[in-house]
Amino acid sequence: MDSELKTLGEAISAALPGAITKIALDFGELTLEVERARWVETVRYLHDAPDCLFVNFVDLCGVDYPQRPERFEVVVHLLSPRHNRRIRIKTRTDEATPVPSLVGVFKSANWYEREAYDLAGVLFSGHPDLRRLLTDYGFDGHPLRKDFPMTGYVELWYDDEQKRCVYKPVSLSQEFRTFDFLSPWEGPDYPTLPGDEKATKA
Predict the structure, then answer these.
(1) I need a surface site. Which of 65, 77, 108, 164 has the fewest CB within 10 A?
(2) Positive or negative CA dihedral for 63, 68, 70, 71?
(3) What is the pLDDT along the chain (202 residues), one digit of tens a residue?
(4) In terms of residue numbers, what domain contains 85?
(5) Using an 8 Å Cβ cutoff, are 124 and 61 in contact?
(6) Within a domain: residue 115?
(7) CATH number of the domain where residue 27 is located
(8) Is residue 37 situated within a structural domain?
(9) Does the predicted TM-score (pTM) go above 0.70?
(10) Contacts of 112 (CB under 8 A, 6+ apart)
């Protein structure tokens, strides 16, 4: 099976000279890294070529690697029912450079690209309606980026005086605590808690 997938990857690379930068076999699936400028061309070939026929769009997501110059990977999974194969394709981009949209090849890519834009901040050129999908209007930042704070920047409150929901800066009511993760039956040496004064050690 691995040799069959490797042969397919080499055939795709030969059919699209310069488009495929890396061929790998990961978790029993063929993985291709694609030049960003050849992204749509490669996906269209995978969709139309008789030896591919990857006609089912399974998933698209943005992955954040903040230590890289091009911090985002756009990862797409496709399925070929005719040949009973799956393929994973990737391309890289940064915060300012858009990736060409796949909506012209797969209409179902629309909301997946909107989700990747909303949660990771990946831009897509040629998308018919690139706006936030899951976060609120006016949301600041992209919550699935690795440098996004876990608490967020603002929190939502209902204001009784204004009779509406308002945003306020996040304020933590207590400092972060440390936890020992020991079971109480293992005998951790806790200080005496208020109300436990009558308890005595045997």
Answers:
(1) 164
(2) positive
(3) 588 899 999 999 999 999 999 999 988 889 999 999 999 999 999 999 999 999 999 999 999 999 999 999 999 999 999 999 999 999 999 999 999 999 999 999 999 999 999 999 999 999 999 999 998 877 888 999 998 888 888 888 898 999 998 888 887 666 655 666 666 666 666 666 655 555 555 5
(4) 2-133
(5) no
(6) yes
(7) 3.30.460.80
(8) yes
(9) yes
(10) 57, 59, 60, 61
